[in-house]
Amino acid sequence: MLAVQGDVREHEQALARLGVRTTRVRRPDEIAAVDGLVLPGGESTTQIRLLRTFELLEPLRERIAGGLPVLGTCAGMILLADRILDGAPGQQTVGGLDVTVRRNAFGRQVDSFEGDVEVRGLDSRVHGVFIRAPWVEDAGAGVEVLARVDAGPAAGRIVAVRQGHLMATSFHPEVGTDARVHALFCDLAGAKTSEER
Ligand code: GLN
């Protein structure tokens, strides 16, 4: 777990439900030691600033380039994106995922909402909690779309993607007790869950 800011505990609990061992990453040597990383939701401008302060940004970019499996949720999706729209002035990202994300995309009136989403690879819908969430405005050819909003004004918008060892969701799969999105990530990361041990 990247633990500079955001909802670290909820992700730890979701992974614990799967029997996956987690550690918190705040130092460069800790990045070197993990087999996979979750970038939690929170505030992307704060997170990128703290990544710089803690000298984690370059080591993280290097590990992503080297194939580290990463799950980014909400602000974490923004961090993983190569391009960002409606970011804060000069806002940078970690990058790696060939997408353009629109920050706070769902608009001011509907800051936050919940809705069920069909996620590719799961046999029934996931309850999606969206909190000032981004969406994927554009995805490169190598990016697999895992979920789109299927009703309402944002219908058709991409809210979950995967590209090789990288996965990102606009919504918060760590909220509640359904850990299936985390399980998908563990499959991709090759992590051992308790069922497989
Ligand atoms: N709007 C936030 C940002 O830009 C993301 C919100 C979230 O992670 N819940 O960083």
Automatic annotation (TrEMBL):
GO terms for biological process: L-glutamine catabolic process; pyridoxal phosphate biosynthetic process; pyridoxine metabolic process. Catalyzes the hydrolysis of glutamine to glutamate and ammonia as part of the biosynthesis of pyridoxal 5'-phosphate. The resulting ammonia molecule is channeled to the active site of PdxS. Transmembrane segments: none annotated. It catalyses: L-glutamine + H2O = L-glutamate + NH4(+); aldehydo-D-ribose 5-phosphate + D-glyceraldehyde 3-phosphate + L-glutamine = pyridoxal 5'-phosphate + L-glutamate + phosphate + 3 H2O + H(+). Belongs to the glutaminase PdxT/SNO family. PANTHER family: PYRIDOXAL 5'-PHOSPHATE SYNTHASE SUBUNIT SNO, PYRIDOXAL 5'-PHOSPHATE SYNTHASE SUBUNIT SNO1-RELATED. In the presence of PdxS, forms a dodecamer of heterodimers. Only shows activity in the heterodimer. InterPro entries: Class_I_gatase-like (IPR029062), PdxT/SNO (IPR002161), PdxT/SNO_CS (IPR021196). HAMAP family: PdxT. L-glutamine binds at G42, E43, S44, R103, I131, R132. NCBIfam families: PLP_synth_Pdx2. Its EC number is 4.3.3.6, 3.5.1.2. One of its GO terms (cellular component) is glutaminase complex. This is Pyridoxal 5'-phosphate synthase subunit PdxT. Keywords: Glutamine amidotransferase, Hydrolase, Lyase, Pyridoxal phosphate. SUPFAM superfamilies: Class I glutamine amidotransferase-like. The active site is at C74, H172, E174. It comes from the Bacteria. One of its GO terms (molecular function) is pyridoxal 5'-phosphate synthase (glutamine hydrolysing) activity. It holds the Pfam family SNO. Pathway: Cofactor biosynthesis; pyridoxal 5'-phosphate biosynthesis.
